[in-house]
Amino acid sequence: MSFDSLGLSAELVRAVSDKGYSEPTPVQHQAIPVILEGRDILAGAQTGTGKTAGFTLPMLQRLSAGKPVNGRRPVRALVLTPTRELAAQVGESVEVYGRHLHLSSTVIFGGVKINPQIQRLQKGVDIVVATPGRLLDHATQKTLDLSSVEILVLDEADRMLDMGFIRDIRKILALLPRRRQNLLFSATYSNDIKKLADGLLDSPVLIEVARRNTAAEGVSQVVHHVDKSRKRELLSFMVGSQNWRQVLVFTRTKHGANRLSQQLEKDGISSAAIHGNKSQGARTRALAGFKAGEVRVLVATDIAARGLDIQQLPHVVNYELPNVPEDYVHRIGRTGRAGNEGQAVSLVCVDEHKLLGDIERLLKRDISKIVIPGYEPDPAIRAEPIQQGRQSRPGGGQTRARNRRPGQPGKGHKRPARASRRA
């Protein structure tokens, strides 16, 4: 199977060939012809399966076949993503695959000045890739008109719901024309995703290229039991003794990411941290240094679990297990992408045994456990009660510890709805 057999134009096949791709991935093989027909889709695809090209290529073809409205260049396609990094990645794909077409695009997200984005929009663009918060900022300021959108893409919709974007998504949907093509991509399924799909999609074609809520194939997974106080020492030992040159490490909190990055630097391992409190410039520089090999270890909170596209990333380490089992799937999906092999290592202390059990129940399998000689857990150390404070909210935020009676709602229970302003 080749790309030209899917019905793509010569210009798009040429752009794909320039990227070095000759055969479509399963999600591309299934999605591209359906999208070209103008059908709505609900696609369940793990990260790294080529889903971005799966919707970008047919979207570009459908737009290039149309004509500007009354000589104007209105926004005709909108791609919503949960994070700035994913928005930038999708925007880059649009430019790369559309290089031989007469279409224009732009990426808009928070954390950077809004005026350059306004100037770009005023010139007219066919495609906007955006995070929900900044998109609504433009809509409020009347610097963006979405009344001519023909194609809407919700990329990593499950992550957007996790981050509290559902209200913003509803506001954005109200700004769009009722007749349009809708493409919804989600790595995992939940009742909320099904509810969103039921209200958004019109007789959608279901595309699923992997079992639901499963880790990417090609990723070997292993757990190393170790005392909490020796995790950093073990991590440094593995990076050094096994000569790991590119490692993505996940922590639960922003403070923990900063602290671990500083400790690794003291160990002589080049490191950088990336999370929601970092400026967009700092995040971009850290990621660029990591991709270029100048930074050996990139320490991240779950805001980076989606949207980081690092080709052939060999190692992902869960320095701390996530509180939500599905986030484990998203984290380790950063490696083993596009058919490459990868390794996912989890450093698990006694306090995290329940979290590990939750992950294994989600995966419906046991993860291999290996104790590294010299780092055996102390059997005298007992598990501490799980604390609810200082844990990452979806997207890398943190909440304060609060003592309340069972069933008593927390004061900050409405805060996730404001997460969009940070994207």
| Order of strands across the main sheet | 3-4-2-5-6-1-7
- Spatial shape: globular
> What is the residue-averaged pLDDT?
85
Number of domains: 2
Describe this protein with a few key phrases:
single chain; 423 residues; alpha/beta; Rossmann fold; 2 domains; seven-stranded parallel β-sheet; 14 helices; 14 strands; globular; disordered C terminus
Furnish the topology, listing elements before pairings:
Elements: H1 10-18, H2 26-36, E1 41-44, H3 51-65, E2 77-80, H4 84-97, E3 105-108, H5 115-123, E4 127-130, H6 132-140, E5 151-154, H7 157-162, H8 166-174, E6 181-186, H9 191-200, E7 205-208, E8 219-225, H10 231-241, E9 247-250, H11 254-266, E10 271-274, H12 280-291, E11 297-300, E12 315-318, H13 325-332, E13 342-348, H14 353-363, E14 368-369
Parallel strand pairs: 1-6, 1-7, 2-4, 2-5, 3-4, 5-6, 8-13, 8-14, 9-11, 9-12, 10-11, 12-13
Describe the structure.
35% of the residues lie in helices and 15% in strands. The chain has 423 residues and is an alpha/beta fold. It folds into 2 domains: 4-208, Rossmann fold; 219-369, 3-Layer(aba) Sandwich (Rossmann fold), CATH 3.40.50.300. Helix 5 (115-123) links the parallel strand 3 (105-108) and strand 4 (127-130). Helix 2 (26-36) runs parallel beside helix 3 and helix 6 crosses helix 8. The protein is globular and about 75 Å long. The model is unreliable at 386-423 (pLDDT under 50).
